Structures are given as C-alpha cells and as structure tokens.
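retry 2 of 3: previous attempt timed out while embedding fe (ii) ion. Reduced batch size to 1 and resubmitted. Inputs unchanged:
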Amino acid sequence: MVGKVQPDEKQGLKKILVVDDYLPTRNLIVETLSQSSQYQIAEAENGKEALRMFDENDFDLVISDIMMPGMSGMELLRLIRDRNPSSAVIMITGNPTTDLTVNAIKKGAVDFLTKPFDIDELLYKVDIHLRQKDMLPGEPSGNILEQNKLNDQKDELSKQGYIYDSIEGSPMDNDVIFNKIAELALKLVDGEVCSIMLFDEQDNEFHDKVVKGNTEGMHNNYTSSPTLKMVFNEVIERKEAVLINSNDHPEVAPSLICAPLMIRNNILGILSIRKKKNREVFSKKDLHHILSLTKRASLNLENKILYESIFFNIMDTLKSLISSIQARDHYTEEHSQRVTNEAIRLAASMNCPSNDLESIKIAGALHDVGKIAVPDSILLKAGKLTDEEYMVIKNHPTIGENILKSIVLLDKERMIIQCHHERWDGNGYPQGLRGPDIPFLARILSVVDSFDAMTNNRPYRSALSKEDAVEELIRNKNTQFDPDIVDAYIKIL
Ligand SMILES: [Fe+2]
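retry 2 succeeded.
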C-alpha cells in the first residue's frame, strides 16, 4: 500500500498523508488514525514518493518524519509549502529539543509530534489542525445556509487569524499574550468579564494573572467561592471547557464558561468568562469558540515555551564557550562585550530595526567564538605571528560559523560572524566578499571590532589613543571599511 491512496475515496473524509521511511512508525500512525472513520489515510516511505502523491491528490494534512534518507522531511516541508502555502504539515521528530524542531515551526510546519508517540496527542493534534483547516474560506456557494456557514467560517477565520497574529511573530512577553487572549475571549463571545488564572505547582493553587472587562460586583477570587472552586475542579478533571447557565449561584449567574489552558497534558491555567449583560446567557457555539481559542492559545504557548527554552539553552552553551576562551584569554570576552555594546549603539544610530539590534547583540557576543579552536601558543603569542600562525587565526570566523551551523535559529547571526573580517575592497577573509555583498550588520561589526582592537592593549602591541584610532578608521575608509559606517561611527564616538 506504500505510495498509494486508498482507492475507495469517500465524500467528506479528511485525507491525510503519512510519510516515514521507518515502517513500524508509519504503521503505528496509520493504524491509530484508521480507527477514526473520518480519515482517509495514504502513506509514503520517502519524500519523493510523498511529493508525487501530494501533486496528484488534495491532502488536508501531511504528517512527515524529519529524518529520512534521500529527501529530508524539512525539504519535503519546504516543497509542499511552496506548492500550497496553506497546506498543514505536522513534523515528526525523535528529539524535541533539537534545532530541527524549531526549524520545522519556522519553516511553516503547523505542529510537531515527538517519538515515542502519545496516541492521544497524535489524535488531538490531527483533529485540531484539520478543524483549523476547515475554517479556511472555500468557494462561494449559492445556498444561503451554506453562505451563512461560510460567512461564519470567515468570521471564525478572522477571529482565529487575530489570535494567531497576536501570539505568533516577534517574541512577546507572556503577560502581553495573556492580555490578548482575555481581550479576544471577550470579543469572541461578547462577554462581560474575563479572567485568566495560572496554576502554581508550588502551592497547588490558581492565581489571578489577567482580569479584563467590567469587574464590578464580580466574584473573581475562586478561593472564596465554593461554587467556582467546584467548577474549576471539574475543568481540571475533564480537561475540557464547561458552560454553566444558572441563576442559583451569584458567582456564576447567569452564565459562565471556564476553559483550561494546557501545555502538553498539564494544566497551565484556566480562562473563565462571564456574561451578565441583560441577563443573556452563552450558547453552545460560544463554548465552542472559547474552547477553540484556548486550544489554539495553548498550542502557541507550548511552541513558544519550547522555542524559548531551546533558545536560552543554546545561548547558555555558547556563552559558556566564550567564557572558556576567557579562561585562556581575558581579552576575548571583555572585547566581545564592548564590541556588542558599541555595535548596538552604532546600528541604532543608523536606524536599524529592532530585530537587527537583536541580531547584532547575539553576533557581537559570539563573533570570536571560533577562537576556541586557536591554540594558546598562537592566541596568546606576544610577538609577531608567522604566516602559518596567521592562517590559523584567519580560520576563526569560519569555525565560529560552523559552530553555529547546526543552530538554525541563528542563520542571520551566523552570516554576520562569518563575515566580520571581510573588507570593503574585497581583500578580507574568509570569502573575500566586496562592498554591499558583505552583510550590512557584519560591516558595522567590522568597524566597531577594529576600533576596539586598536584602542586596547594586545600581546603584540600597545593601545592607540582614541584620536589615532579615529584617524586609522578614516584612513581605511573605502579600503577596509564601508565609508558610510565609518562616518556614522565617528559621529557618535
Ligand atoms: Fe574576529
């Protein structure tokens, strides 16, 4: 059956393509999904086969392994997204803490599954992403009911799009995200007041995180309300949203929805929203909206937390590499710190956007990380370097770039590090790039790096005065340095 779509195509079934070269994994996924009568499953054992099938069929979802011989899962993801940018692809990875996982999300995968599989997680993620895809607007229909449904779906899509845009994108403070979720919940179901409480494992209690809307006369503190406590316990136990329409309890009257925020299978917090306007109550559709909002928000939070933990882990590792150079050579770490500060100041004065400042902060701190591979006899040599020794030193941008190669998070920073000894006239190293071919941020780093090296004592020569170093920058405009950057730096010095 490999490489084939099951022939009996039934109307309304969701078509899923499972791609994995390892038969037991593929079988497990296919068998699990086949238990649902709503899915029609096809399978492929490699990327090439999968792509051919993708071209011939309309798949609602692709689930693909990352590590495969021949075409990798990442390449398949890229080609599928090229063909259809709205296609949903879930990636499978053996190790959730690798850079591949993060890269998959960056390259447009909607989610990832980690081995060994949790069957519930597999079913849950497939379900939620297929439902998400359903909300994409389709062809206009003549039928009024259909049209209304479509309008509802479009409305839903814009609501979903809003939360996606609110949470995705530039790194955001968690508080900002929770505020946005609460605001969106109020808008989605025309609620009166919404609160998000986070679960604290230390004291086993929920604590207020965000309260939005009209809080007048509201009981938000669940600890003082036995009714709310009961509702919360039910949400935690069932891990599902609940809707209560009742006038018996003032804490919930007339209508209350509570939904869990989950990370993996653990409760992160609870979103509760109440309506008391005109004594109206929430509908089942409102409950559905809140449920899909919290599920979506949970997935985004989960990805964000994973992304951040990987990122900080990597940065910690790299910083300890820099520190290990410092143990041998005090100059490198202090130099890196000064260069970073000056490069940020210069880039900001040249109106670089904030993501560039973020990149230069990372690249500045790590630009000489490749010196880890330079032996002490050369790195700490007091006299003039021989040609051979200079060749070893000249390897450090490439070694630094190689160290960061496996970290896809840092593509842009890697390029800056690799090019920080290139020269404007093309006589630099390692590639001999010329003029604007050298990344702009690398040209900034080059000016600041050289100025700092000149104004500090080195084993082989003593420091120049600031004035002499400025003269040196000016003398090397158009040869070593980008003239505009030199001018901009002198202006702020
Ligand atoms: Fe360097």
